[in-house]
Amino acid sequence: MSKKEKENLEVEEAVQDEAVKDAETEKAAEENTADKELADTKDQLLRTTAEYANFRKRSEKEKQDAYVFAKSETIKELLPVIDNLERALASESEDYESLKKGVELTFNNLVATLGKLGVEIFGAPGEEFDPNLHNAVMHIEDENYKNGEIVDVFQKGYKINDKIIRPAMVKSAN
Question: What is the pTM of this model?
Answer without folding.
Answer: 0.60
